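Troubleshooting log. The previous structure file for this entry was overwritten by mistake, so regenerating from the original sequence record. Sequence copied from the archived sheet and checked twice against the printout by T.R.
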Amino acid sequence: MPSKPRDLANPIRDLFDAAVRHYAVKLTCPRCRNQRIFDPHALWYHFHKRGLPDWLPDVREKCRCTSCGARRPTLDLVHEEPNDDTLPMPSETVWKQELRRRR
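Regenerated output below.
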């Protein structure tokens, strides 16, 4: 449920929106309940580099559990510290170029 009026006017639809608003991405395996929390900037950059769509439903379809291999984890946007640092962060130049492109 949106907590602020801003959330109603501008819903978070993709990884870039989540990164701009500083929401971490929490993926939970439906089978083994393994949880990983990713930095939104790093996850966006991972999809961006590969030319994959970063819409949240598409992200869910592309992910799988590293423990058991199950597909389609539960995706939540949270204000928690990331516990996964395996993905590289985008450079400041790349991030600023994308910010300018989307204005």
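The beta strands are 24-28, 35-38, 74-78. Archived copy saved in two places this time.
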